[in-house]
Write a structure and sequence with these properties.
The chain has about 260 residues and is of the alpha+beta class. The chain has two domains: about 120 residues, 2-Layer Sandwich (Beta Polymerase, domain 2), CATH 3.30.460; about 110 residues. About 50% of the residues lie in helices and about 15% in strands. It has twelve helices and eight strands. The strands form two sheets. Strands 1, 2, 3, 4, 5 and 6 form a six-stranded mixed beta sheet that branches. A two-stranded antiparallel ribbon has the order 7-8. Strand 4 and strand 5 form a beta hairpin. The protein starts with a helix and ends with a helix. The relative contact order is 0.15.
Length: about 260
């Protein structure tokens, strides 16, 4: 599949004049709880030649495709790319999606020196308050779709889309670093109550053997844990001081990358 995705990525970007410096898997496959029919969510970062950044040309900051069925493999492929300058503006805001891309356990292409340097800048720009806010917002949205107070069955996918950001927010507020992308690695650095952990294990087992639309009965212990944890983490986040990232370092990195693309 990696060869297929690399070929498709070249096909989608060949007329743009852009150079792909990084491509990875995002979403449930990177998080470690994909269903048999999960899409391949390929996300990538690209840069234009140096002279493009000193011209009056309007740069296309995103290169996206609608999800489509790949005839050779029968897999659903979804490609989305961000241009370097757009990505770095989001990097300065501790954008959660971008930080997850940079640390995805499933990569399809990487310009190693550039990405190594980029990741080394994380401690100088990371705003735990902003990153935790990203995850807490995701968790609230998913919990609202679950409607925990209503009872009844819910989509396993939505359940996990509530669990993971709660754990990620706890990681960020506890360790002051980006949360691991894979759920298994995330759990390894945290301590869940035994009853909630058992519920989560069962939820993951069910999700792995059913398709995306699978619904599951509720897990009361997990529900209580998520509700209480969301409240306590929000209080911790609110107590954090404001943070200003080191823009000079990021600007210097930008100039170095585009000069290499010349």
């Amino acid at each position: 599949m990696k060869t297929t995705i690399a070929y498709e990525l070249k096909r989608h970007t060949k007329t743009s004049g852009a150079r792909v410096i990084y491509a990875c898997e995002s979403g449930s496959r990177a998080w470690g709880f994909a269903s048999p029919d999960s899409d391949f969510d390929v996300r990538y970062l690209y840069v234009y030649p140096e002279e493009t950044y000193t011209s009056l040309d309007v740069l296309k900051e995103t290169l996206d495709t609608k999800p489509y069925l790949h005839e050779g493999t029968g897999a659903m492929l979804d490609f989305g790319g961000w241009e370097l300058r757009k990505a770095l503006r989001l990097f300065l805001k501790s954008n959660g999606a971008l930080l997850e891309w940079l640390h995805s356990p499933l990569t399809y292409h990487e310009s190693t020196p550039i990405l190594d340097l980029w990741r080394s800048l994380v401690p100088d720009i990371l705003d735990p308050r902003a990153l935790a806010s990203h995850y807490l917002g995701m968790a609230r949205n998913s919990l609202a779709r679950l409607d925990i107070s209503a009872g009844g069955g819910v989509r396993a996918k939505t359940y996990l889309y509530a669990v993971r950001p709660v754990l990620a927010a706890e990681w960020v507020l506890t360790h002051r670093t980006p949360a691991p992308v894979a759920l298994a690695d995330l759990r390894a650095g945290l301590s869940l109550p035994k009853d909630a952990a058992a519920d989560l294990d069962e939820l993951l087992t069910r999700k792995a053997t059913h398709n995306e639309d699978f619904s599951t009965p509720r897990f009361p212990n997990l529900d209580r844990y998520l509700t209480a944890k969301l409240t306590s983490l929000s209080e911790t986040r609110n107590a954090l001081p404001a943070f200003e990232p080191d823009r000079k370092l990021v600007n210097a990195f930008f100039r170095e990358v585009i000069s290499e693309a010349a």
